[in-house]
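$ run holo --ligand "FE2/S2 (inorganic) cluster" --emit C-alpha cells
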Amino acid sequence: MTRPEYSSDMTTQVIFSSELQRVTGVRETNVEAEDYRSLVSEITDRYKELMATDIMDMSVAINGEIITEPMLEKISPGSEVHFLYRIEGG
Amino acid sequence: MSEAQDFKYIGQRTIRPDGHDKVTGRANYAADLTLPGMIWGKILRSPHAHAVINSIDTSKAEEDPEVFAVMTHADIPNQTASGVQNILAKDKVFYHGHAVAAVAAVTESAAERALGLIEVDYKILKPVMSIDEAISNDSPLLHDDLFTKGMAEDPAVPSNISSRNELSKGDLEVGFAEAEVIVEREFRTATVHQGYIEPHACTVRYDEDGQSMIWCSTQGHFAVRATTASMLGIEQTNLNVIASEIGGGFGGKLPIYLEPVALVLSKKSGRPIKMQMDRNEVFMASGPGSATRNWVKIGAKKDGTITAMKAKLCYEAGWAPGSSPLGPACMTVFTPYDVDHQYVEGYEVVVNKARCAAYRAPGAPQSEYACEMVINELADELGIDPIDLRLKNVAKEGTQTMYGPKLKAVGLVECLEAAKSSEQYKTALKDNQGRGVASGFWFNVGGESSVVINMNEDGTGTIVEGSPDIGGSRASMQMMAAEELQMPVEAFSAIIGDTQNLPYSNPTGGSRTTFATGMAVVEAAADVVSQLKERAAATWNVVPEHVDWKNGAAINTKGEGVLTAAEICGSAAKTGGHISGRGNISARGASPSFAVHLADIEVDPDTGKTTVLRYTAIQDAGKAIHPSYVEGQYQGGSAQGIGWALNEEYVYNEDGRLENPGFLDYRIPLASDLPMIDTIIVEVPNSFHPFGVRGIGETGIIPPLAACGTAVSKAIGIRMSELPMSPPKILKAIHDAS
Amino acid sequence: MAKTHVTTTINGDLKEFLCEPGDTLLQVLRDELGLTGTKEGCGSGDCGACSVLINDRLVCSCLVLGVETNGDVIETVEGIGDSDKLHVIQEKFLEHAALQCGICTPGLVVSTKALLEENPNPTEEEARYYLAGNLCRCTGYDKIIKAVLDAAETMRESA
Ligand code: FES
Ligand code: FES
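-- output --
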C-alpha cells in the first residue's frame, strides 16, 4: 500500500473521532507504538482526560482495516489508526 | 489478495443442503417443537403507551386451576441485568404492548384467558409519540434521569434527547463558499417493522440440576444464552440454546423477548414451556426501525463538483435510550461521495414506542435516503445526469471517509457504470412515470465466528458452525470448505451447532456470515488439510513439507504415493486419532459493499396508486460465493426498501396505541405489487478475504428509499420528501399543488 | 368444554381427532396431529403461511375451524411429492433458490399446486395475483415467480 507522507518519521498517526476530539482537543496525533496496547497507553498518558474506557467501546481501523478486537494488534511504523463508533449490523 | 482466482466450486449455483427439508415442510422452526408435559406461556401487555404501574394483582390468576405459574418483573432473579425492563416492565410502561406479566397454563387459550385475571392498576401519563413532541419544551419526560450524552457541556436538566453525535472532515464554510448551487431539504421517515413472517417463539425446559434448554428462533443463540443466563443468574454451561430454523430476522431477531420469561415460568411450574407471539404482539412489542427527521444541505459548482455536504439527523430510539442506530446513520450518510468538506450532527430522542431494533443496515436507509434525494435534486438543478453527477464525485479507493479510514478498493464506480449501461436506464418513460437512481453504502462487519469441521471415517466432513442460517448460508459454507479442501461440495454437510457444541459466535447480522463465518470455515478447512498432510506424511514416513494437497488427496512429492481423504480418514486411528479442524476467529477486514438501484414507477394521478414498473439492483459482492443467494439478497433488500418507501408505516392513535399491528394494515409488498427485480453482481474483490468476499446482505435495503422517492416525485412532477409515499400522501400532494 | 370428534382424510390417511369448538384447523394440524409443515405467520388470513387444500380448494387453515372439516379431504405440504421424489414445484423452488428463510415456502408450494391445477399455463401476472395471498419477506418474489412459471412449463411438458 502507499504510505502516507508522514511515515518517514516512523511514527503512527492516530486520528480521533469527533467524539474523542472533544476530550483530546486535537484531531490527530503521532505516536511511536509497536502494538495497539502500547498505543492506547501512550495516548491516554498524553491526554489525561482520555480514559481507556472511552476507547474500549469503539472499533478501530488500522490502515483501513476495521478490527473489532484490536488488543493484540501489532502496528507497523507509518500506520494510520482511526477510532470509530462501534458498528453493528442487522 | 484474491484477484483473478480460479475457483472450482465457488460461484456455482448448488442446491442448498437444508432445501429439501424446507420445501417438504420438515424443517423445524421456532414454534415447531413440542416437549412431553409441555404447557403454554403468554404475556400480558400494556394497553397504554405511557403509564406508571401502581400495582399488579396476580392472585386470581394464580388460583385458576388451569394456571401453573404467574410472573412479573419481580420474579426475574437478576434485576439489574441489561435489557431486563423490556422483558417485563418494572414500575412504568413505556409503550403500547410493553410486557407487564406472564402466565403459564395448560393450553394456549387457557393462558390467554388467564391473562384477563391479572389486575394492573395504571396511572396513565401523556405519551410522547414523535420527534417533534419529544424535543418540544413542554413535552412530558419519559425518563427523569435522562441527560443528553455527547454535548459540549453537560446539560443541567433532563430531556427526551438521549445523545448527540458529530462527525466532520474539512471545513464546511470553505466548502459552501465554493458552491454555486445549493440544495437543502428536510425529510421524514416513519416507524417501520422488519416484517419477518415467523413470529418470535421458543420452547424451553428448566432443569434444576443439569441442563436447561432453550429452543428458539434467533439470529444469535449465543447472545440468547448470555442474556438469559444473566437474567436468571445461572452459569452458561447449565444452559444450552438450540437455534431452530429461523423464519426471517433482518435485525429484528437480535433482541431477546420471550426466552428469560419462558425459562422462569418453566422453573416456577416445573414444566416445559412453549411461548409464541401472535402477529399483533410481533408488531407491537418487537422490531421497529427508527422513525427519523433528517435535514441535508449540499453545495456544488456548476460543473457538478460537490463542494460541501451537511446533515442534521434525528432518530427515534423507541423508549430505551441508546436503541437507535444513530452512530451508523451519521457514519454512512455521505460515504458514497468523495467530498472534502462534510459535517453531520445527529440526535437520538426517546418516544413512547417499542424499543427500536436493528433493521438491515441499521440507520443507513434513512440518512442515505435524505442525502440521495438531495443529490438527485441537485442533478436536476445542475442539468446533469444523476449517474454522471455521482460518478464525478464518486467514493473510490483512497477516499477519506468522514467516519475514519480511507476506503480500500470498492466497487461504486463499477456499479454506477453498470447502472448507466443497463437496459432499464436506456428505456424511455411515458406520462405519469418517473425514474429514480440512488446509491447505497454499508460497512459490513466481521466479528467472532467459531467453526469445527469433523472428518468422518469415509473422508466426508461435517461443518459445525455457530451462525444461524437465515438465507442459505450453509450452502456457502459447504462451497468454501469444498474449495479449500478441493473436494466435492457433497462431501460436506453443514449444521448450526448448539451453544454446547462450539465456543461463542456473534449473531448472524451485519452481513457477516458468509464473510466472517466463511473465513472461519476456510481456517478450519486449512487446519484439516494440514492434519491430513501430516497423517499422509506419517504413513509415508516423510516430513509433511514433502506432501502436497491436490484434488482432495495427499501427494508424496518425494516418492510414489497418493492418499485420498477417505483413505487418510479411514486409517486416522492408526496415525494419531480422528481428525477435526478448528477455526475460531475474530474476523477482521470486513469491507464495504456499495450498491446502485434504478426504480421506474408509474403513479395514477386520480388515486395516487403507485406501480413499480421496473427495478434493477446493482451491487458489489466482492466475490459471489453462491450467485443465486447473492441475487436473492439484492432482491429481498430491494423489496423491503420499496415497501419502506411506498407503503409501510406504523399508525398510532392519539393515545399512542398502535392501530395497525397486522399484515392487513401494515402492508408489506405482495407478489402482485412488484415486478421482476433485475440484478447485476459487480465483483471487486475484498483484499482482506481469502476469496474476496464482502458482506452483501444489508446494502440492498438502502437505495430503494431514494430511488422510489425520486421516481414518484418525477412521475407527479412534485418533490416529495416524507416516507412512505403512500397513495393518500401522493394524492394530497397532487391536490395541494393544483 | 366438550370436545368434538372429527374424521378427515389428511394427505391420504384417515385421521380422527378431538377438538374444541374454537380450535382452528391450523392448531389441529400443528398441535394435535404434529403436522408442523403448515406454518403460522399471522393467524388472521393475511400471510398464507398456513395454506392447505380442503377438497382441492386453497384455504388459509387459520381461518377454518377444526370442527368444520368433518368428512373433508385435506392436503398439506407434507402430502406434496413422494417420500423418495420431490414434486416438480418443490424441485423448481430449490433449483431457482426461491427460498431464503423458507418459512413461507410450505404455503407457497401448496398455493402453487392449487394455481397450476386451476391454470396450467399462467402468465407472470396471473401467477403474481394468484399468489398475492402468500407473503414472503425475504426474496422479493422474483425467484419464486420464476420457479412457479418454470414448474408450470415442466408440468405441461410432462402432462
Ligand atoms: S397464518 Fe393463516 S394466513 Fe397467516
Ligand atoms: S423465504 Fe423468508 S419469508 Fe419467504
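-- notes --
Chain B has 20 helices and 26 strands.
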